[in-house]
Amino acid sequence: MILVLxxxxxxxxxxxxxxxxxxxxxxxxxxxxxxxxxxxxxxxTSKIDIDDVRANPLVADVKRVTEPYKAANRKFHPAxxxxxxxxxxxxxPYFAVMAGPCSVETETQIIGVAxxxxxxGATVLRGGAFKPRTSPYAFQGLxxxxxxxxxxxxxxxxxxxxxxxxxxxxxxxxxxxxxxxVGARNMQNFELLKELGHCKKPILLKxxxxxxxxxxxxxxEYIMAGGNNQVILCERGIRTYETFTRNTLxxxxxxxxxxxxxxxxxxxxxxxxxxxxxxxxxxxxxxxxGADGLMIEVHNDPPHALSDGAQSLTxxxxxxxxxxxxxxxxxEGRNMVCTLKN
Length: 342
Fold this sequence. Notes:
The structure is a single chain. The chain is α/β, with parallel strands linked by helices. It is built from ten helices and 15 strands. The strands form three sheets. An eight-stranded parallel barrel has the order 7-8-9-10-11-12-13-14, surrounded by five helices. Strands 2-3-1-4 form a four-stranded antiparallel beta sheet. The mean pLDDT is 93.
């Protein structure tokens, strides 16, 4: 349920009003704009009499929300959410680029790639320490050693890091990680999502291989229901009948998600296509569709990468893509904001 409050209500009035609903077991989300204050009620609102609420002198209007996702719903939070961490901002007017190898392999590799993507303008270093693979015989990542190497790259370059978690039991290992990624295969791992809802770090949630947009938003809702509102959505392609590309990049999901939700939306053209030469045009198309950022795979030696080398860009190719990305952003009057320490 959404309550649109009248203009000029005070913080004290809003707080007192919210406590009335919290006493009934509801969770209140308050969004204050320049002219309007919106109070979203999450929980069993069936017993609330709309006419009684509408009669309250603080209330201008009352609406029931029919969508199953509440906290992620733009009706609850009309303004774009901006997720901030380590000098980087994603969402609203702010754009960010996450780049790095699919898997962390060696200290030389990850630090070298980090230095090169930073020179090209990347704002976040991506790299997998834990790698879910289709084959049990494929390289599964370096695990805790991979996280240690990511921390070394972070210390050397100042780039914040994003990496994937697969098991909530590993959370203690992620202390130095700035953004925790939930991969496509774990999008509906609800026990993991609930645990991350109690985490104080931003969560990058990737869309599942064959999940609908509503299912995607419901997974974000699991995280937000636990109290963590720092969620970044990532469209990374879905499985279709097409076989030319690894997946099919659903660019229509970007404006749809931004229409339905206030959360930032980024695009991963590397996993979506599996083809390096498609990364540049689809990165530009993602920006035109309204994406708040990109996630791109970059490896210093793609032919010898331990995972997903075929879809990775070389540092030189990534530099060329970043030139195109910057031109596209300038054309649209957007910017990348990053105040890194080093």
